[in-house]
Amino acid sequence: MDSRGALWLLARTALLCGALGLVLYGAVAFLAGLPNGQWVIGLLLSVPMTAFVGWVVWRALREGEFPRRGGAAVRAEQPVAYWFHTLWYGFCALFLAWLAVWCMEELLAAR
Asked: Where are the transmembrane segments (predicted)?
């Protein structure tokens, strides 16, 4: 790839990221202006993260490998690192689930 093509790809990526950033900012600004917008934002952010982090922990428990930067912590080869990451991410998934339930309770109580 020549330098002109690389610059074109870089400009196209910057334009896409800028446009998506403006859309995200507009959506968050709109939701924050709603009477219970903070609970909607909390719910919209915590539910997908709960699902993702829970899936990572579930997969690590089933397969015996926890993905991390620079490779994976394998239960048989690095048990301390494996269990530390699995327990830490499991705690984070539980906290995120609690946050989602709390936001939902607040939204239902505001009705």
From this structure: 7-33, 39-61, 82-101
Cα–Cα nearest to 54, from 9, 11, 98, 91: 91
With H, G, I as helix, E, B as strand and everything else as coil, classify residue 32: helix
Picking from 64, 37, 53, the residue whose alpha carbon sits closest to that of residue 98 is: 53
Please state the pTM of the whole predicted model: 0.76
Domain boundaries, the chain: 1-27, 34-110
Predicted pLDDT at 47 = 96
- At residue 39, φ and ψ (nearest 5 deg) are -75, -35
**CA angle centred on 108, ends 106 and 110, rounded to 5°:** 70
